[in-house]
Amino acid sequence: MMQVAGIDIGAGTAKAVIMSDSNITSYSVKRISNNVVKAAEEVTSEALDKAGLSLSNLDYVVATGWGRNAVSFANKTSSEIICHASGVYFLMPQVRTVIDIGAQDSKVTRVNEKGEVVDFIMNDKCAAGTGRFLEVMAQVLGITLEEMGPLSLTSENPCSISSTCTVFAETEVISLRAEGKHMNDLIAGIHRAIASRIIVMGSGIGFDKGTVFTGGVAKNSGVKEALEEAGQVKITVPKEPQITGALGAALIAQVELTQAASV
Amino acid sequence: MYPEFLELCGFEPEEIKQEEPRVRRAFEILDIGPEDVDKATERIKTYYDVELIGIRKSLGIWVKELIDMVLAKEEGKKIVYASFPPTYQMVAAMTSASSDIYCVIPEVILGVTMNCIFTKATSILEAAEKHGLAPGLAFCSYLQMRLGAIAKGIIPVPDLVVPSCLMCDQSPKVDELLHEVYGVPVAYADHLFGSGGSEWPDDISPQRVQYLATEIRNAMEEFGNLFNHEVTESEFQQATEKEAALFNASLGLWELMKANPLPLRINDLNMVTEIPAACSGRALREGANALNLLCKELAKRVEDGVGVLEKGAPRIMAAMVPYDPSILSIFDELGLAISVTSQVPSPARETTVSYNSVWEQVADLILRRRGALYSGLAYLSQARDLAKLNNVDGVILFHHIGCRQYNTWLLKAKAVIEKDLDIPVLIFEGDYCDTRDYNAKQSRTKLETFAQIVKTAKASRKGNK
């Protein structure tokens, strides 16, 4: 039996997926504190424990994400854009567009009928349109990230946040709060701002019926709804949107192993 | 002093001895100490192909030009700063006018030396930010380098500035700032920019040629009046021929870059092909020799079937190229063979109009040679035609963050090239001199993904044949 792992070390969380042949055996998601190397080891160890395996059982490991080079036990690294596309295509082969919003960056990727990436766009150095933007806003409003989605869905009169710049938007939100705007309307406005940024950024890539939303921010139902409204497109969120990158990495590990075996 | 560094930069033993006081003095002004030189030595060994004498000599041209520029005032020269992109023939004419006059395009020299080799650009950029080009306003880092270096006192205040106005709107404004703050006279060589461009490069608008020719002649007149040295048509013609020799030497290199496997890495190619863009004293005197020497060495590599990347590596055209050697080396790591850049001139075509004066001939040549200096549409068609002519597998359009002119064309260029040639195109963000403006890890992710896309597309095309 072929045992492989995909490890995705993002800016905020570490994810690991273990696969046996073509089946997902286990996965794990852990928040990264200070030590990226330790986070990679811990998340892998946790996923291996769930699968009843140890590191020595793994035949091939592919690492992805910002911290991919910190995974010392990886046989290969791959870009997170390729990995997210592979992971999503594995789960939903009809998909042609992937929106991935992580802690530090956001990407819109075009996938063809074979699951190959044909085009992509990634945010520049600016934090606008990323999970960090939401983190800052949550902090300003004194709520948790998890509370943002459900609260925003109760809004009937979303505020207009004109700036997508994290710093300017923070000031804007503080001013609106001082004007007495409701919390749910503020959050809905924040979600609209992030969605508008992503839809404009990805307009050259295109959004269609097969658009899937992944990354930690995809767990926020308010952002999903705002994206659907801004892009006028139906968006699907996988059951575990955070692990698609690690899943893609595991799938690449499988391919590598199969290719090596056939040589 | 610093023999290893200077040897790597192609200095002959006699030259090292002779130049020592100048190197010492220039480095003192530039605040380049032994640690900086050690670091620069390592960078050169890491990022440049110093086995090639032509590469060493080319590096030497940049370092010598830096020293000449820093010491120009102390050595009693009258100084002219042209701005990038310049009218090269004017720079050549001003440089050649008298041994007492020193003309240079400081931002290009500073970009290659203080940024790529010595990694000391940030303090220069910060100086510019304190003296008029405020941070966060998307000013071109090239122009910040020029102003910052003057403000820091590491290059002298010039006696004349010559903004080209060929395509950049920021350069004349920075020169206006220099005029207001330091009282430096400005000789504008203006240019009409913005026609449709569909006529390029076959039917260059005569009105535009005549306008640019008049502007060049007027700027040369201002130069003559200020320095009491008239540049005649015949002197201008001679300088133009020197510039052409340097330019023609670079053409041989582009031919060699068509070889498979690729004979030269992108860091070397970029550094060497920028020499004609720095067409001032050292480049004019030593540039053609260095380029010819390099071509001979590369011809041997090609003959022997030796390359720097695997045979059959995907061929990429980079329209504009970032400077940062650590970013450029990622292309090699990923097996992307950059064989064409926007420094390649457009395919030569005969002019259908004959011009009488040398000013008009030069203006016609300038507008015909590079689409980017003619219009957005011309830039676009040049990029597409070059990609097609060289049969590349992908195109990278560099997005220099502070360049308003180029950036307006990028999305359109991507769409047109993808549609017409059916090859992947990446818009790749970065900055020529400001490493604070991009993130190396993010750049790597983008390039890794693009490399994968290009390889998949290439394999698919091969499979379809």
Give me the secondary-structure topology.
The complex is a heterodimer of chains A (263) and B (465).
Chain A: E1 3-9, E2 13-20, E3 23-31, H1 36-51, E4 60-64, E5 76-77, H2 80-91, E6 97-101, E7 106-111, E8 117-122, H3 131-141, H4 145-152, H5 166-178, H6 183-201, E9 211-214, H7 221-231, E10 235-236, H8 244-262
Parallel strand pairs in A: 1-4, 4-5, 6-9, 9-10
Antiparallel strand pairs in A: 1-2, 2-3, 6-7, 7-8
Helix pairs in contact in A: 2-8, 3-5, 3-6, 4-6, 6-7
Chain B: H1 3-8, H2 13-30, H3 34-47, H4 53-71, E1 78-82, H5 88-97, E2 101-104, H6 106-117, H7 121-130, H8 141-151, E3 160-162, H9 170-182, H10 206-227, H11 233-256, H12 266-273, H13 281-304, E4 315-319, H14 325-333, E5 337-341, H15 358-369, H16 376-389, E6 394-400, H17 404-407, H18 410-421, E7 425-430, H19 440-464
Parallel strand pairs in B: 1-2, 1-3, 4-5, 4-6, 6-7
Helix pairs in contact in B: 2-4, 4-6, 4-13, 5-11, 6-8, 7-8, 10-15, 11-13, 14-19, 16-18
The tally of helices of chain A reads 8
Number of domains of chain B: 1
> Which band does the percent of strand residues of chain A land in?
15-25%
Round the mean pLDDT of chain A to the nearest integer and report it: 92
The unreliable regions of chain A are none
Structure description:
The complex is a heterodimer of chains A (263) and B (465). Chain A is an alpha/beta fold. Chain A has eight helices and ten strands. Chain A has a five-stranded mixed beta sheet with strand order 3-2-1-4-5. In chain A, β6 (97-101) and β7 (106-111) form a beta hairpin. In chain A, α2 crosses α8, α3 runs parallel beside α5 and α6 packs across α7 (221-231). The two termini of chain A are 18 Å apart. Chain B is of the alpha/beta class and 465 residues long. Chain B has one domain (3-464). Chain B has helices at residues 3-8, 13-30, 34-47, 53-71, 88-97, 106-117, 121-130, 141-151, 170-182, 206-227, 233-256, 266-273, 281-304, 325-333, 358-369, 376-389, 404-407, 410-421, 440-464; strands spanning 78-82, 101-104, 160-162, 315-319, 337-341, 394-400, 425-430. In chain B, the strands form two sheets. Chain B has a four-stranded parallel beta sheet, sandwiched between helices. In chain B, α14 links the parallel β4 and β5. The model of chain B has no long low-confidence stretch (mean pLDDT 91).
